[in-house]
Design goal:
Largest sheet: 6 strands, parallel
Structural class: alpha/beta
Order of helices and strands: EHHEHHEHEHEHEHH
CATH superfamily: Isochorismatase-like
CATH topology: Rossmann fold
Shape: globular
Strand order of the largest sheet: 3-2-1-4-5-6
CATH architecture: 3-Layer(aba) Sandwich
Radius of gyration: 15 Å
Number of domains: 1
């Protein structure tokens, strides 16, 4: 397993939208953790990509993310697998980064299908399980297990943050540490 690093990582946020967030069982935790990851990506200058599933009906990305990632690459989608959009896949590939920090809604549908496609396309996937959600805990837990079985690295927000920092001497250590206090 590879440890995350800022030079090779990108953040991919799948469908953390207003109406979808209200439907998941762990909405408060998911919202807080996704905001922390968005802030960290901004501080560490990690490229961020955000998808929105049918925003006309499901609303836009929550403000806790949008406000912290003003330069993110946004893509509207209708397919569950975000990589079904060849232009989106091209944008990811154009970064040259192969480590994907993945989070979003719903874990067992769009996140799972996108994770599988990322692996099929040569990316190393690091799923942040406390920044993912589903309507049902059973569906969520099954998806986490299934993704782990096919090679997704299952992590938490703090694991991701401290892997990216490497140590307390990182120039952004105090700023990142403050996000979790």
């Amino acid at each position: 397993m590879t440890i995350l690093n800022t030079e090779n990582s990108l953040l991919l946020i799948i469908d953390i939208q207003e109406k979808l967030l209200n439907a998941v069982f762990n909405a408060d935790v998911l919202e807080k953790q996704s905001e922390i990851l968005a802030k960290a990506a901004s501080i560490l200058k990690i490229p961020a990509f955000i998808t929105e599933q049918y925003p006309k009906g499901l609303g836009s990305t929550i403000s806790a993310i949008k406000n912290n990632l003003p330069e993110a690459f946004y893509r509207e989608k209708n397919a569950f697998n975000a990589l079904s959009d060849i232009d989106f896949l091209t944008a990811l590939n154009n970064t040259g980064h192969k480590q994907v920090i993945l989070l979003g809604i719903e874990t067992h549908i769009c996140v799972h299908q996108t994770a599988a496609a990322l692996i099929d396309n040569g990316f190393e996937v690091h799923l942040v399980k406390n920044a993912c959600g589903s309507r049902s805990p059973e569906e969520y837990n099954n998806a986490i297990k299934y993704m782990n079985d096919y090679g997704v690295h299952i992590k938490t927000t703090e694991m991701v943050l401290f892997e990216l920092l490497k140590g307390a001497k990182h120039p952004n250590f105090k700023e990142i540490q403050a996000l979790i206090k």
